[in-house]
Amino acid sequence: MSLMRAVQVSSPGANFELISKEIPVPANNEVLIKVQACGICHGDAVSKEGHMPGVKYPIIPGHEVVGTIEKKGTLVTNWKEGQRVGIGWHGGHCNQCSACRRGDFGSCERSLTTGLHIDGGYAEYMITRPEAMVSIPEELSSTEAAPLLCAGRTTFGALVQSGALAGDLVAIHGLGGLGHLALQYAVKMGFKTFVLSRGKEKEELAYKLGAHKYIDTNAGDAVKQLMKEGGARVILCTAPSGKAISELLPGLGRNGQAIIVTGARDTMQIPPALLLGGERSVKGFVTGNMEDAIWFSVLTKIIPMVEVFPLEQAALAYEKMMSAKVHFRSVLKIS
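Given the sequence above, the corresponding structure tokens read:
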């Protein structure tokens, strides 16, 4: 019997535990991945804390996974053993439901989520489906590529689909794991890019990454400063605070939209008249194309800022991520 190390959660809210278990064997339509790196994302709290019904425990978290194909099932023909690939939040789809028949695989009625419905990348090996994989270019190391599979894909996708045009004012709310990537994408896309963050601590970094203006939200005049510019076409909300997001909404210009890409758990208060008055909108966004985000990052030389941890320090890496003490993405380096 061949064994591997993995970090699992045995029940909702339980501590991480380092275990040894048998290396899984892929089915005909599956692939066995030898994991090289796995990013730690705020979405991992869903499995760690049991925020979603239907998760079967014990579960191995992790949905920003980079590794090489160790073994593939007999039905997997378009990938090669030894090829380096990435796997994100979407872990596979059925190809049969009404959403899949429309090509909307992210809305599949029987979709799989990596690290929730199937074991994820806090392990030396994992099983995945071929439709969930993306090729990783040689320009990126595995620890650099891992955060692009969720944080990069989501922020990049939200900006691409926002409808904003080059020269429009885009405000990035929060400069953490999501925000530091969103800022770089917005600048490279040609937007007039403002950063909204509490205090002055991150001002120097914001300008270093290309921000056109930094606004300290603790000063209390963030909305006023946005409206001096005619209001934001987009406020991309990466900081997990419903209250803070609500307070920024009056800073949207006409037809502006706030796009929420973070899992804020507190309630937002939105006066309907605010939306009606300028045809403003608020939406959530969790999808995006991994391949597009990766190649845009390579072409524009956008690299995530990461802190690297060994597998046995997964609990520490997770705690630093949850407390916003990591700069700016925790990544497990596994092999």
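Residues 101 and 179 are 34 Å apart (CA to CA). Try to locate this feature in the token string yourself.
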